[in-house]
Design a protein that fits this description.
Layout lengths: L9 E3 L5 E3 L2 E3 L5 H14 L3 E3 L7 H10 L8 E6 L7 H12 L4 E6 L6 H17 L2 E7 L3 H11 L5 E5 L7 H9 L3 E5 L11 H10 L3 H11 L3 E2 L6 H8 L8 H8 L22
Parallel strand pairs: 3-4, 4-5, 5-6, 6-7, 7-8, 8-9, 9-10
Antiparallel strand pairs: 1-2
Bound molecules: nicotinamide-adenine-dinucleotide (NAD).
């Protein structure tokens, strides 16, 4: 596995498109604070911005892209469709594009599998056709477990380009990540900092002291060296920069395995919901 050399590095997806190996998340951010934060993130070199219809901030993301001064083809903009929108996925896609002010999305993800497989497959089938129109460059999923991926593959004889899942030191999803790797599915890790709680793990802080880096930088570096694409969120300039400065050092094998040992058993570290139980599709 080739480790991303800098914030502009890209990885190849299974449909031939490329995606930045590092991104910026915008959940629970909005207003002019978010527009300014994205402008700063772009100045720091972030090129992948992760939003969703559910976040209700696509308008601000679009505004920041318009004024950010980065060419559209250098950016990788991801949005997501919520399971209640699976009945009319083209309407959901067109609405996201309209609010963002874009004519295509680099990534469009089924945000959660939802509880109704029929509606999920309907959304996938219709969105696949939208890839042919050029409105979606890479169709992917989020919060899909191995059973959801296998079922999708059984129905469509293809794997999604991306699976965006929760991954951080206390919740590592090792088996699901291995399954994705075996099948050429890129794994994007959401809540890569454990929604902020990861920076308080004593072993992470200890590694930070050893290496002269912050705990957040240790976690993000571990993710990059593990082949994950982290999308940390912050609206504060100093943290946006700090989180991006993870390409000038590396963790050795012993340090990597110390972090691998922090995974908690029985999903105890999970901050999100169980995709088998939530959210309802209607
Ligand atoms: P995160 O792990 O990125 O943590 C963000 C929080 O950590 C911040 O709000 C801040 O409190 C803290 N933080 C950020 N940088 C820090 C630093 N350098 N030092 C100390 N603390 C720091 O959590 P997140 O926002 O939940 O996840 C990131 C992104 O993933 C989201 O913004 C969203 O785009 C995406 N996401 C997707 C899903 C999904 O279901 N697909 C779910 C949750 C999040």
């Amino acid at each position: 596995m080739k480790v991303a050399a800098n914030i502009f590095a890209r990885i190849e997806l299974n449909n031939g498109q490329t995606m930045p190996a590092f991104g910026y998340g915008v959940y629970k951010a909005g207003g002019q604070e978010l527009v300014a934060a994205i402008a700063y993130a772009l100045a720091c070199g972030y090129r992948y911005i992760d939003t969703a219809s559910f976040y209700k901030n696509e308008k601000e993301v679009g505004q920041a892209i318009k004024t950010g001064g980065i060419q559209r083809d250098e950016l990788f903009i991801v949005s997501k469709i919520w399971p209640t929108q699976f009945g009319d996925p083209v309407k959901a896609l067109d609405e996201s594009l309209r609010v963002l002010g874009l004519d295509y999305l680099d990534g469009y993800l089924l945000h959660w599998p939802g509880l109704d497989a029929k509606r999920r497959f309907n959304a996938w089938e219709q969105l696949l056709r939208q890839c042919e129109t050029g409105k979606i460059r890479a169709l992917g999923v989020s919060n899909f477990l191995e059973c959801h991926l296998t079922e999708l593959h059984r129905n469509f004889a293809m794997w999604p380009t991306i699976n965006q899942i929760e991954v951080h030191p206390h919740y590592q999803e090792k088996e699901l990540r291995a399954f994705c790797a075996d099948n050429g599915i890129a794994v994007v890790s959401w809540s890569p900092l454990g929604r902020g709680s990861g920076v308080n793990i004593p072993e992470i802080a200890g590694l930070g002291r050893d290496l002269g880096k912050t705990p957040a930088q240790i976690i993000l570096r571990w993710q990059i060296q593990s082949g994950l694409v982290p999308i940390p969120k912050s609206v504060h300039d100093y943290r946006i920069r700090e989180n991006a400065e993870v390409f000038d050092f590396s963790l050795n094998a012993a340090q990597m395995s110390r972090i691998e040992g922090l995974d908690l058993p029985d999903n105890a570290g999970r901050t999100g919901k169980d995709p088998m139980l939530w959210p309802p599709s209607e």
